[in-house]
Amino acid sequence: MAIPVMHGLAPDVDEILIEPSRGWVSLQLRELWAYRELLYFLVWREIKVRYKQTVLGVAWALLQPLFTMIVFSLFFGRLAKIPSDGIPYPVFSIVGLAPWTFFANALGQSANSLVANANLIAKVYFPRLAVPLSAVLSGAVDFAVALLVAAFFVWSFGGAPSAKLLWLPLFFVLAFVTALGAGLWLSALNVQYRDVRYVTPFLTQLWMFATPIAYPSSLLPEQWRAVYGLNPMAGVVEGFRWAAAGAQTQPGAMLAVSAVIATAVLISGAFYFRRMEKTFADRV
Amino acid sequence: MNAGVISVEGLGKLYRIGEAQPSYHTLRDALASAFSKPFRALRGGGASGGYKPHWALRDVSFGVERGQVVGIIGRNGAGKSTLLKVLSRITEPTEGRARVRGRVGSLLEVGTGFHLELTGRENIFLNGAILGMRKAEIRRRFDEIVAFAEVDKFIDTPVKWYSSGMYLRLAFAVAAHLDTEILFVDEVLAVGDASFQEKCLNKMREAATGGRTVLFVSHNMGAISGLCSRAIWLAGGRIVMDGPAREVVKEYLSDRPAARTADLDRLRLKGYGDLVRFTGIYMEGPPQIPFLSPLRFRLILESRQDFSGLSIGVAFSNSLGVPVAAIVPRDTFSIRAGETVELILRVDGVSLCPDRYHAGFGVGFGGGTSARHDLDIVNGEPVFEILPVSESDIHISEWNTAWHGNLVLLENSIEVVARRGRAC
Known about the structure:
The complex is a heterodimer of chains A (284) and B (424).
Chain A: E1 15-18, H1 29-34, H2 36-50, H3 59-79, H4 89-116, H5 118-123, H6 130-137, H7 140-156, H8 168-192, H9 196-209, H10 225-228, H11 232-244, H12 252-283
Helix pairs in contact in A: 2-6, 3-4, 3-7, 4-6, 4-7, 4-8, 4-9, 4-11, 6-8, 8-11, 8-12, 11-12
Chain B: E1 4-17, H1 27-36, H2 38-43, E2 52-65, E3 69-73, H3 80-87, E4 95-101, E5 104-107, H4 120-131, H5 135-149, H6 164-176, E6 182-186, H7 194-209, E7 213-217, H8 221-227, E8 230-235, E9 238-244, H9 245-254, H10 261-267, E10 276-283, E11 288-290, E12 295-303, E13 307-317, E14 323-327, E15 333-335, E16 340-347, E17 355-365, E18 373-387, H11 401-404
Parallel strand pairs in B: 3-7, 3-8, 5-6, 6-7, 11-18
Antiparallel strand pairs in B: 1-2, 1-4, 8-9, 10-12, 12-16, 13-14, 13-15, 13-17, 17-18
């Protein structure tokens, strides 16, 4: 069949070629950028809807890390006398809990995001990456609230801001990248294997124990710390304590390992996601 | 200028039946499944057991030129929706390719992405963005959308408090203001009440005449032949016929198998047909009748007894199944035991409006001045469609059955009999 000659089209009208894809496909980040308004609306919807019909509303973003901190301080700080890197235990735990709560929520939300938006995926075209991405992004508001709570505790226990605070955005980006990378893997797997729904909470719990939230990584022998960085969240949490609460442990080597791992998880997750993407509409 | 905007070559889509199996709903299901087939599932590349391949589309090729309005018709499972999904890039084809030039809007359902907790205003922006509209574009057309949906008082109320009618109107209003050069529409007209459908149909008519390229899937043959210049008939994933809409619709409708004896038994009312019974009811000619044309049916009857003075009763029901017209012709006939009689029933002066109808027949006595007593009643076949005729001088293309019913009153006049006051 002859392909009709193109003429009389506005120059900015692009032609879409629809054909079967094979194997690994490109990430199409430019297209994702073109759909940034939709991304914005998806994030906005998540945030708007999250605390609808709750009595306490956005206060939940404050209460979640706060109560966890209280429980941790009582059991781990008071009773178990777990060391806290030379800073008061409440400060120690809340500064770790702020990024961790963001990560855990973002992971849970994004892992479930494709299945939760099955209807959209079956009926409308848009870059599917926008779905888990918006789930992770929407956690940023809660994170901001948790960060304020943490700042309050640092201040009330006599901590003062230092130039090290400038590193915080970087550590947040690291947490974001880790959550998105893992979220991409889990959300794509979830379309095919609904087992993921049961695995995710369990995985999050194990991950928390593998992250120095209730305890400092300085409990580990020096030579193992870099290995510990294989868990990117370990680098994030230690980084937060170092930058915001003046903890003594320097996260240097650990952080380098964490950054490499997080980037690897994100890139592999994005490509795996794109590869599985063609089956989403048929399977979700 | 006619540039091809859509060209489809050898498009095919393979589904594996079993893939779309229900997902796990309970932990127990998941565990049961985990124990029974973990390795098979992992190795087979899907949480599916045995599957059989099914081509939802196969070897589909066609081109659409700028401004063409093309209807896609076919029975359920013919591949119509799959075709639109592939062209909208929601799902990937298994083979072949398609090119689409220009901005595409696809309306495969109304209200996609609507969130019950959000207000009407918020949902307009959200849904608009989902359909591919820019924020500025939505803002510009916001008032128009609200006016079309007739929900201005409730625009800041969460849509969960809306009536289903309001919800649908709002959802359609957003979709209707999607200004893309290419539009794919799948059966959105099938939702809502008749007046809402009519509103949607009018909007579609606007889109169709506005120089946009439209692919339109519908089961409503009246809408297809009224709106589309061309139709593509799909069956079993393949193109059966592609041509002028009227002709394709005509062929498609006459493809319906004629009512057979077995079908009539299914349609027979309980307790009837012991002595005299219909053994065949057919439409003479294609079951697609231009407005005001006569209807002709061939009726075959058998009897176990001798009867004379029998008459036929016929009733027509509209697409909602509501009986709208009936007649018992004055002519009578006789039948002897063991005999088969074939009749042609002709009904003239039919002023049924364009719609889909089915007929019901009775054979028995009386009905004129005396009470009717039927010996057999069969209701449901044949199905036929009255089509709008543009040549007729009666304006029926805007007919709305919800407001106007199904009967077009033909003889009428208006005469000014008095005038009061002064003209300026």
